[in-house]
Amino acid sequence: MAALSCVREPATDSGICPGREPEAVADDGSVISGWIRIKLQEDAAPLKVGVFTRGEADSGNPELDRAAAALGATEIRRSFSDGGRFAERRRRYGFHLWYDIRFDEDVPVSRAQDGISSLPGVAHVQPIYRIVPLDNGRGIPGEMVYRPAAIGAARPSDEPFDDPGLPQQWHYNNDGSIEGSVAGADINLFKAWREIGAGRPEVVVAVIDGGIQYDHPDLAANMWTNEAEMNGTPGVDDDGNGYVDDIYGWNYYTDSGTITQHFHGTHVAGTVAAVNNNGIGVCGVAGGTGVGDGVRLMSCQNYDTDANGQEVGSVTEESFIYAADNGAVIAQCSWGYNGIETPLSMQRAIQYFIREAGTDENGVQTGPMKGGVVCFSAGNSSYSHVGNPGDMEEVVGVTAMGPDYKKAGYSNYGSAADLFAPGGASSANPEDPKQVYSTYINGGYAYLWGTSMACPHVSGVAALIVSYYGVDTPGFTAERCREILLRSFRPVGEYVAGEPYADGLGAGLVDASLILLENPGIKPG
Hints:
The protein is of the alpha/beta class. It is built from 12 helices and 19 strands. The protein has helices spanning 62-70, 87-92, 109-117, 142-146, 189-196, 227-230, 263-273, 318-325, 344-356, 451-470, 478-487, 493-496, and strands spanning 31-40, 50-51, 75-78, 98-102, 122-129, 132-133, 204-210, 249-251, 296-305, 311-313, 330-333, 335-336, 373-377, 396-401, 419-422, 436-440, 444-448, 489-490, 509-510. The strands form 5 sheets. Strands 7, 8, 9, 10, 11, 13, 14 and 15 form an 8-stranded mixed β-sheet that branches. It has a 5-stranded antiparallel β-sheet with strand order 2-3-4-1-5, covered by helices on one side. Strands 6-12 form a two-stranded antiparallel ribbon. α7 (263-273) links the parallel β8 (249-251) and β9. α7 packs parallel to α10, α8 (318-325) packs parallel to α9 (344-356) and α10 (451-470) crosses α11 (478-487). The protein is globular.
């Protein structure tokens, strides 16, 4: 919070407070071994980057070289890329001043941090942190992964679209038929679809997560595509954005345009914008009406699953910068840090997205909204506080509801929460219908639960708001979108009265149909 209080306009200052105090850190598995991240002071000379032999560091800063040699350092690299035609804008935020230093993995990160923090010209030192995807964290049986979507199944006459999996998505329209559920414990999506539509392709949602299966039959038509790269020359940065062959987004784990499917990213993407009314699978909150009119999904991949089923990689701050520079105006983030405050580099990247999304390199609005809205899940530890970065004032923090209007047992809660949304009931049964049903890897569909599953409901509603108010209406802003989003809720006090978490769920249950509600300007009777 002290760091945030020093933020000034990015055109004149990068927002770093005076002093070089390192962030406190314990080497407990929450950090990436063998790496630290530093930010130079504004007047410091840039460092030389590259790989070097131990003891022969040549960064251009002799004192840093001596400290690096003592740590067994072997590489210095830029933390953020130049960004092609967006380079000058990124420089105004000071991203050119950040560097990552690789050192001997036997050296504790805390020791490396202490060894660098006091050097002249160094403004800030921090570890590189791991993140935690906020789903139920279990494997899914093979039959769940490969189960095909039914085609041409009959549907009840009151359902707006013909997707056969829609009746399983109680979180959109809960009729109370599932045992243990309560009718109306949903986001009232059918009414919203009837009254305001189901999304517009001009709106781009960045899914900052594992990779989306971009060729999934129920997602492919709603994927964002970089037309210049898709129709350009392989191996060439055809659009001058600083990235080569970034057709569906960027893979920060492999540092390439090759997106690899991941169950978590694919599942949350489906909740935001699976293709509606296409006769297969499920629906997305802002998935359109089956005529190519759904919002678009940009895949910003940051981690993957290795051969042992373990998550590898960590969220890269540049995902937010890339998304802002390439047309996204909503950032969907179903992850968090494990018991640490949001690193300064991540705070700056999120702020960049909020301020610069929807504009070109000259600050001119080019998208349906000027600025961006960032949605984060609250965490799955049942804590009485929202996890980071979901507790940042600038973002929308989302807590999770079961199908009965009550807080899901696993969901964090607290004063920093903004909205309540369906995350499903925790269950060891992969077929439990009280979970959230959405798209899955290998063209499949699956139930999952977690605040990870709650967050994309809010991101989807935010996308509906931009679709309705922003498309074809120049001047619509992220501040206006956030205002509408945070008042589009139904109170749930009667269902949670007396519960210790009653005041920590956010304003209320997000209700997509209430985005049309206008502030009358007078107090109610």
